[in-house]
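Please fill in the sequence for the structure shown.

STRUCTURE ENCODING:
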């Protein structure tokens, strides 16, 4: 899996890493038990500070998506967390509201938003 960061992005670098790894796990490009690069290796690959990668990994560990095994490395957890249906729906509602508001302000028709969502869903699965 290739990760990349964009220094000029509105998201901090560590959040870009968190988002990409989360998306890869959700889209099954990263599977339970898959090994992630070390902090130093990923930092060298992305040409960023190792502490930035550590901060991203710490957040992913806190979210119970990955785990570090001392002396072995960092892996996608075998048991991924599951939120309760109501909690998931509430979280998605906020995200959906922001998406629809941005689309409306940009003049993007609802049908185009649905097409975009379908395109992204297909991309997550490939």
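FILLED IN BY: designer on duty
SEQUENCE:
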């Amino acid at each position: 899996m290739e990760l990349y960061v964009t220094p000029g992005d509105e998201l901090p670098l560590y959040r870009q890493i968190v988002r990409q790894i989360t998306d890869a796990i959700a889209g099954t490009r990263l599977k339970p038990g898959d090994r992630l690069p070390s902090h130093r290796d990923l930092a060298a690959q992305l040409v960023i500070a190792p502490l930035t990668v550590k901060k991203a990994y710490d957040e992913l560990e806190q979210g119970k998506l990955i785990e570090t095994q001392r002396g072995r490395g960092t892996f996608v957890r075998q048991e991924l967390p599951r939120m309760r249906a109501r909690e998931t729906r509430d979280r998605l509602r906020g995200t959906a509201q922001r998406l629809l508001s941005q689309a409306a302000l940009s003049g993007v028709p609802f049908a185009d938003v649905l097409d975009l969502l379908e395109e992204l869903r297909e991309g997550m699965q490939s």
